[in-house]
Amino acid sequence: MIVELSHRITDGMTTYPGVPGPVLGTHLSREDSREVYAPGTEFHIGTISLAANTGTYLDTPFHRYPDGQDLARLPLERMADLPGLVVRAKPDVREVGVELFEGLDVRGHAVLIHTGWDRHFSTDRYFSEHPYLAPEAAAWLAEREVALVGIDSLNIDDTPPRGERPAHTVLLGAGVALVEHLTGLDALPDTGFRFHAAPPMIVGMGTFPVRAYAIVP
């Protein structure tokens, strides 16, 4: 079974306050393509202009550090075909603490934090008082060589104006990829699945949307 874990990208959507929404357009319409191709043959070639932090996206170390691995250099095995674990926070808990991870073998795994906050996606509620990963939990995961950490919330860090971003700092500093704005984690078992979230190989960019999904036997 394949489980979809990404939000749809739509024209003008807001993923994060202040980040411009994507603009969808057309390079070649089906009507205009009739002048280019043989009779009865037509195509649509679309365009899109978007910020890298749109929809469900993956952060690489370059997002935080100028000398970190970018989208073209992060090894594929750090973001695709990873053994997965889901850690489930209690409803309405803001800070996801280290106690939820203790006792788990996270080395080499994609650890996905299920908060249920994705139910607010596309509403104003999504952008305030969202759940996030406690700094101590981020350090615990990094020390135990987790491969990837994902969350179904606005951000893996708390997001006060001009605030620090300790989870980004610690995890990306350890080479751990991050996936934010996941959805559908309630459909996954706690263990026993493979997680995939690979973006294009873009040189000099640290973040990009992904089609995140899990394969459950």
Gyration radius, rounded? 18 Å
Beta strands, count: 13
Pick out the low-confidence regions: none
How far apart are the termini?
6 Å
Number of alpha- plus pi-helical segments: 3
Give the assembly state of these chains.
single chain
SS-based structural class?
A: mainly beta
Largest sheet: 9 strands, mixed
Share in β-strands: 15-25%
- How do the strands of the widest beta sheet line up side by side? 1-13-11-5-7-9-10-4-12
Overall mean pLDDT: 97
SSE order, as H and E? Answer: EEHEEEEEEHEHEEEE
Structure in words:
- This protein is mainly beta and 217 residues long.
- Helices cover 10% and strands 24% of the residues.
- The protein has helices at residues 30-33, 135-143, 166-173, and strands spanning 2-4, 23-28, 45-49, 57-59, 82-88, 95-96, 110-114, 132-133, 148-151, 177-180, 191-196, 207-209, 213-215.
- Helix 3 links the parallel strand 9 and strand 10.
- The model has no long low-confidence stretch (mean pLDDT 97).
Keywords for this entry:
globular; two-stranded antiparallel ribbon; 217 residues; 10% helix; mainly beta; 9-stranded mixed β-sheet; 3 helices
List the helices and strands and how they pair.
Elements lengths: L1 E3 L18 E6 L1 H4 L11 E5 L7 E3 L22 E7 L6 E2 L13 E5 L17 E2 L1 H9 L4 E4 L14 H8 L3 E4 L10 E6 L10 E3 L3 E3 L2
Parallel strand pairs: 5-7, 6-8, 7-9, 9-10
Antiparallel strand pairs: 1-13, 2-3, 4-10, 4-12, 5-11, 11-13
Helix pairs in contact: 2-3
Short description:
By secondary structure, the chain is mainly beta. Helices cover 10% and strands 24% of the residues. It starts with a strand and ends with a strand.
